[in-house]
Amino acid sequence: MRTAVQRYRIMAYITGVLIIIVVFAGIPLQIWGHNTVIVNGVGTVHGFLYLVYIVFAYLLARKLGMRPQPTVLLLLAGTVPIMTFAVERWMTRRYIDPALSESPRVADTVSS
Amino acid sequence: MEPQSPAAGLQGSAAPVPAPLAERTGPTWRFLITPRWLGWHLLMVVSFWGMLWLGDWQFHRAMSGNALSWAYTFEWPLFAGFVVVFWARTIRDEFRLRRDGVVDQPEDEPELPSAIGMAAGDRAAALIAQAEEDDPELSAYNAYLTRLNTEVKGHGKWHGLR
Fold this sequence. Notes:
The complex is a heterodimer. Chain A is an all-alpha fold. Chain A has helices at 2-32, 37-63, 68-76, 83-101, 104-107. Chain A has one domain (2-107). Chain B has two domains: 19-108, no CATH class; 110-162, no CATH class. Chain B is built from six helices and no strands.
């Protein structure tokens, strides 16, 4: 459980930082500077790390027994700047902390 | 204004929610044809084909000389595959939950220490109140309802005076 949370958190922070770089530095530079270095480089890296994020986030969501709707929200959070961090906090407050403070029995109701 | 119905908002934002009573009757697979799940199936199909289409588009861009598009040419089909895998796994887990009765057993719900020792009804009310307090979206919605209520009350009063 803790490992799943750690993996999710690490990927959330990485994709969260990368998407902010792409959107707030890369895209303005592309539009006004006609320089696509950041969009191409960081954008592609974000694309592939987002794949990893999606896998870890989904596995965590199943472990926590989250309903489909919040799960989809969680997965999409990796593509919206700042949302990634907001959703990570919401996840911690709403799902992760309660699950960690309970007996492991509840957390394991949905085995991966 | 919120486009969602209050019920949808409630279900969507809550932690493991017990299935509504209507869904507990009949065979297990019935939940798959509820409007909510039909929506999920539709979303799955649309995003699967949409992602394949995006992959195809990137492939054509790659063929016409955009080297970077090769990365996305392979990425989009992967996403499309994820959609199907996640959809299938979610349904499988949902079946498991419903069959094992985990969703239906109230004793599997997390119980708050402050709610222990109360009568069942009071305890349920306390749990609901606690859950509502914990959920900013729900408390915002409740505040909105309260505001509407007072507004409507005021409205009635003015009518009465006239």
